[in-house]
Amino acid sequence: MTFKIRPRNKENRIKYKSSKSILTPNDIAEADSFDNKLNDAIDLIEKVLLDRNLLSERGGKKDPLLIWHIIGTEINRFLEKNHLNRDDEIYFWENLYNRSVLINKSVPKNKISLARNDFKTASILAKYSFEYINKVGPWALWREILSYKVFQDKRIFKWLIRKLIKMPRTRDEARPLLKAIADRFKRIDTFILNKKELLIKLEEINEK
Question: Does the pTM exceed 0.90?
Answer without folding.
Answer: no
